[in-house]
Write a structure and sequence with these properties.
globular; seven-stranded mixed β-sheet; 9 strands; about 45% helix; alpha/beta; two-stranded parallel sheet
Length: about 290
């Protein structure tokens, strides 16, 4: 097994598609399949569930993915660690991020990074997801932080953590409760959604459609903060990341309820150019992200 093999498997999991993984890695689809089968043969376990038409990892595949990402994180940080050993980091690091990450996940990461590397000037530019891919691709940003990161030609996607999605509503709403709620119970409910161009909305649309559930949209908004305000104003419900609603729950303005369904998670991660630029501050920031 080689480093490139670990990257190919991560690309496959990030894209969920053998042909896209092959394109991202610059190899043939057959070569991707052969690499996966070689690992399966070596350890005597299946990594990919081939019993259906959807790309799904086996439990062993999930473990292998975790190990691959850990190995790549350590390997990618080598150059940076060598430079850190010779002196402090400096220069600028340009980060482009979707709006929800800076409000809830980015502040502690930035505090830790700035504490470790006070000589690096970090700037954060808040953009929509498509604008972030463009900014990283043409060099206006060193790193993009997005939901549902996807590899594209010339770009590498790295999933760093996952956020649980929950149903939120005003206090005393009829759907309030503590027990997990099924998607079918949302059929016909007044619902506040994100705009259709946002990956989280696209994912939820697919999940609801596959469950045969149709909600009644009362508003479509561009970010989670305005969604929460609309849920209060409209006395409606929405599905948003659990981390983004903790303050409102603590204040008693909203309540949440877990959802009994698969894929009610929002993968979060980074987008960089491919190959990852040998920029010490960028590699150090990526290493911190992967440890989150």
């Amino acid at each position: 097994m080689h480093i490139e093999g670990f990257k190919v498997f991560c690309d496959l999991c990030d894209t969920g598609n053998f042909s896209r993984a092959a394109e991202a890695s610059g190899i043939t689809q057959s070569a991707v399949s052969q690499q996966i089968r070689a690992v399966e043969k070596r350890f005597g376990v299946p990594l990919v569930d081939r019993s259906n038409n959807h790309f799904t990892l086996t439990p062993e595949g999930s473990i292998y993915l975790e190990v691959c990402r850990d190995i790549l994180a350590r390997y990618d940080s080598l150059g940076s660690r060598f430079r850190v050993a010779r002196g402090k980091l400096g220069g600028k690091l340009r980060v482009a991020s979707v709006f929800s990450i800076p409000l809830h996940d980015l502040p502690p990461l930035l505090r830790q990074f700035r504490k470790n590397h006070p000589g690096v000037e970090v700037t954060v530019d808040y953009r929509k997801a498509e604008e972030i891919y463009d900014a990283v691709g043409d060099g206006r940003a060193d790193l993009g932080l997005v939901a549902y990161p996807k590899a594209r030609p010339g770009l590498r996607a790295i999933t760093c953590w996952q956020e649980k999605l929950v149903l939120v509503m005003p206090p005393k709403h009829p759907m309030g409760g503590r027990r997990p709620i099924s998607l079918h119970q949302l059929d016909g409910e007044r619902f506040v959604g994100l705009t259709p161009d946002i990956p989280t909305r696209q994912h939820l649309d697919k999940v609801l459609r596959q469950a045969g559930v149709k909600v009644t949209l009362v508003a479509e908004l561009e970010n989670i903060e305005t969604v929460k305000a609309a849920v209060e104003a409209e006395q409606a419900v929405s599905i948003i990341p659990e981390t983004s609603v903790r303050q409102e729950i603590k204040q008693g303005r909203l309540v949440s309820r877990p959802i009994d369904a698969e894929r009610i998670w929002r993968p979060m991660g980074a987008v960089t150019r491919r190959p990852i630029p040998d920029k010490p501050s960028l590699l150090e920031f990526l290493s911190l992200l992967r440890k989150r």
